[in-house]
What we know:
Oligomer: single chain
Number of strands: 0
Structural class: mainly alpha
CATH class of the largest domain: Mainly Alpha
Number of helices: 7
Largest sheet: none
Order of helices and strands: HHHHHHH
Shape: elongated
CATH architecture of the largest domain: Orthogonal Bundle
Number of domains: 2
Helix content: over 70%
Distance between the termini: 114 Å
Amino acid sequence: MGLWQRITRVFRAGTGAALDRIENPELVLQQTIRDMRDRVPELNNSVAQVMATERLLLKQKENLSTQVVDLDSKIKASVKMGRDDIATAYIGQLQQAQADLQRTEAQAAQAGDASKQALKARDNYVLNMKKRTAEAMQLISAAKQAKLQEQLAQTMDTFNIGDDASTFNEMREKIDRRVAAAEAKLQLGSASVDSQMQDIEREAMDIQLQDKLLEYKQSMGMLAAGTPDIKQIETNSTVPEADVIDIKSHSNG
């Protein structure tokens, strides 16, 4: 093998490998679909031209048929009138019209066959385009899935590089220590003297509000005269707690 052939082979191999690396199958398939769709209007125009030729020939055929009938009538009228010279002239025109009609009929038949073939070719192209489009969409979906799988594989590879287990364990221990410290502070804060004093003050305020409410009800005559004072009942240790609750509910009601 010559030196130039070897250089050419190496160049082609390198170029092909580079193209394989930069070529995106998804983009290529999408462009192929666009190219196929762009050809449909051009194909429709070609079919329309073939059909227009057929229609024109059919119109010419109709006109020639009418002309033949008209010339035949004129020939007969000329013969009846004894004008053989005029009849002879009309006969020449009739022969020419009949020849044109025969030729036009053949052309119209050919144009009809061409129209049918053009329509069939267009329909086959559209059907094939739809089939190819569906296949391309499936391939594009597969390409996207493969790309996601490749990215996932690369991500998983990054977790396998180095010893990350110790790092995660260290961070977990730090977070656990912070959570434990925060919970301990919260527990101490809730059990502190200040917190207990706040509870007592809030309970005292509630008692004052209840006493004030009772005074309002007594002044408005909403309580019976024999209703005992709640403070006395609460301070009296001989009254059961259930009776105190019942009296409170009666008073509030």
